[in-house]
Fold this sequence. Notes:
Elements: H1 5-17, H2 22-31, H3 36-69, H4 76-119, H5 125-172, H6 176-183, H7 186-214
Amino acid sequence: xxxxxxxxxxxxxxxxxxxxxxxxxxxxxxxxxxxxxxxxxxxxxxxxxxxxxxxxxxxxxxxxxxxxxxxxxxxxxxxxxxxxxxxxxxxxxxxxxxxxxxxxxxxxxxxxxxxxxxxxxxxxxxxxxxxxxxxxxxxxxxxxxxxxxxxxxxxxxxxxxxxxxxxxxxxxxxxxxxxxxxxxxxxxxxxxxxxxxxxxxxxxxxxxxxxxxxxxxxx
Length: 219
């Protein structure tokens, strides 16, 4: 089950009121008819959206960096301010990705811990084996998903660090020589961001598959 848009606002309000008490939050969600499995799907959707936003922002930052290195006249400070804004937006998007992936991991851990415990409650060996098989399959798919997310996430901070260095360098050297120096490093920045975007695309695709696999089976 995926959260209908009409339910998301009240559900998030409940989450805010119960912040700091995860078990109470889950209890409140169950009253709305949402189990941890449903919450996990919603968190994966949020992480996917955060990655999509970050990918677009890093591509925008790269375009601005290229524009700066091609700059041949006019107000250098204006170009610096544009690049600085792009960096700050990229940093914010990266932080959102970190936060969303952490939320995915937290809910997944709680879901699998609960599922493991509940297996012992079955009186039917056949049903227990079926549930165990489903748990193993879901856990395996989750490992593929979180692995892809982590690989993409791992590239965020190094790219940001390299971007920050160039922004600072331009801040301290607002002249044509600084622009020429940055231009010589353009290929490296392009390669780093291209690799990041490729990993994000793979992670987004894994999220799409996970969401599809977790959707209720249709009769």
